Amino acid sequence: MNKRSFLSAPLRIGLITPAWPGSHSANGIATTIAHLARGLEACGHEVTIIPFSTDASHNFSRVVPIPTLCWRLTERVWHKFSRDPEGIAHRHIGHQIVTAVQEAITRHRIEVLVMEETHGWAATVCRHIPIPVVVTLHGPWCLHKEFLGNSKTGIEREKREFKGLRLAQGITAPSRDTLERTAALCSLLDIPRTVIHNPILVPPASNKSDPTRILFVGRFDFLKGGDVVIEAFARIAGKHPSCRLTFVGPDRGLERPGFAPLSLAEAVSTLPETVRTRIDIKGQCSREEVAALRLSHGLTIVASRFETFSCTMSEAMAAGSALVCTRSVGGAEILSEGETALLIPPDDPQALAEACLKLLGDPELTRKIGASARAYVRHHLSPEAIGQQTADFLASFCRN
């Protein structure tokens, strides 16, 4: 069999996801898996979904849910008084995943499994199933711990994730920065690995985009930089007479060493009334609601202090909304300064304000950046393009 026919042979792929179909979950991984499944099937491959939860009705036929974790009384006591309760839960959940994967192998004959690295469940899965496991680095703790804490629980979580990565047959990451940094920290010397960006759908073009409306989609927490967005908008509003900010996402509270937790409402309440009245706080929205907002906003902000790859970034690009993005986002490596985005340092409200004001003052530049970003997504990040890249990588593990 030559290479061309080998790579084009249909694969039977299992995809683990936090939620299916993901339309009502504020979870970028669920969205990514939904798009990847679409792309793989469009390329002729057979996908089986293995979800932790179902968040909306669907008509997809090959779905094998992960069983709900049920604790016996003795297990509850052991978990409560253990020095590593997260470790106990980790082992139980790992075996629940194994149960679902084994059922998917029996019912749908999947021949390769793709799962995220979270909590190192891949270690348990790799030991108990007979098919290859490929791990995708959606958010390894070794990279996030700088921003999310470094408790004993966090140290144990990192160890579990490293163990899972070292047992995997292959590893993918949505950005080169994420892959190279994780590989160096985990010593992934001999494991096949590659960069495959997250896929995204390109929606129909819209002529209703308002160049004076700014959109931020993300949790209000330290990692996503919602506090930087609020501070930057106070500066923007003082210099632009009519722009508005739409803030979409759950309020998780901002936690900083030495400070009391800060809610979004508290952060906004400190602003002058003339600024507060120009901020629309939407809370958590469905995927469809966010998609509609993207088409009506001419400018999108990604202010994250760190991300492996931002779905907000790629979704804004796909919608043709001009983007201001921090360089600390792993996916920012696909952006071209002044062509598909304006890039700024993280944690810098002044730089964020200046970049937004530049676009607000130049509608033609805003239009050109949005159009160029949309074209990039169409050619490089479509579900079909990413599906084919994923299948090409997975094929070598299925039919050696």
Give your account of this protein's structure:
- The chain has 400 residues and is of the alpha/beta class.
- The protein folds into two domains: 3-199 and 382-398, Glycogen Phosphorylase B (Rossmann fold), CATH 3.40.50.2000; 210-380, Glycogen Phosphorylase B (Rossmann fold, 3-Layer(aba) Sandwich), CATH 3.40.50.
- It has 16 helices and twelve strands.
- It has helices at residues 3-8, 28-42, 73-81, 85-108, 121-128, 141-148, 152-167, 176-186, 226-239, 264-269, 273-276, 287-296, 311-319, 349-360, 363-380, 383-398; strands at residues 12-17, 46-51, 112-116, 133-136, 170-173, 193-195, 210-217, 244-248, 279-283, 297-302, 322-326, 342-344.
- The strands form two sheets. Strands 2-1-3-4-5-6 form a six-stranded parallel sheet, with helices on both faces. The protein has a six-stranded parallel sheet with strand order 9-8-7-10-11-12, with helices on both faces.
- Helix 5 (121-128) links the parallel strand 3 and strand 4.
- Helix 2 crosses helix 16 (383-398), helix 5 packs parallel to helix 7 (152-167) and helix 13 packs across helix 15 (363-380).
- Residues 1-7 have low confidence and may be disordered.
